[in-house]
């Protein structure tokens, strides 16, 4: 079926699921969300071999780190569109939680197909931003190597990847 024959959903903002789980490589989705801001691009990746849902759609950040999945009910509608090549632009619409009394973060994304105006994202609330800043400080204090221990390996891997792909530095 051609992409134009499939019906796009009227819904534009989607609540994600699975943000509290770790990724298969052991990375914490909560840690990834801690460094993710509303308005940033997101990417959808079909996961048809997912044992729980053949319509599964993973949501990734700009660094190709998995944030969560689209809920099964929504994935059942979106998967045929993605499979047909009808891929919307996605962005982080809102980060929920991340508060002193509700530390677990959730995420919503907004989708816009070609010719559609993207939804305006919801910025972090002041108390969310303050909590996140405190969490980052706390994590840096508990790190034995501090900030440089995270930045230098990331910079090395990025420059190595760019060299390996012949991209200009």
From TrEMBL:
Residue span, HIRAN domain: 17-113
Keyword Transmembrane among UniProt keywords: yes
Keyword annotations from UniProtKB, A to Z: Hydrolase, Membrane, Metal-binding, Transmembrane, Transmembrane helix
One Pfam family in the UniProt entry: HIRAN
Gene Ontology molecular-function annotations: hydrolase activity, acting on acid anhydrides, in phosphorus-containing anhydrides; nucleic acid binding; zinc ion binding
Record field: transmembrane: 147-167
Keyword Hydrolase: yes
Name of the featured protein: HIRAN domain-containing protein
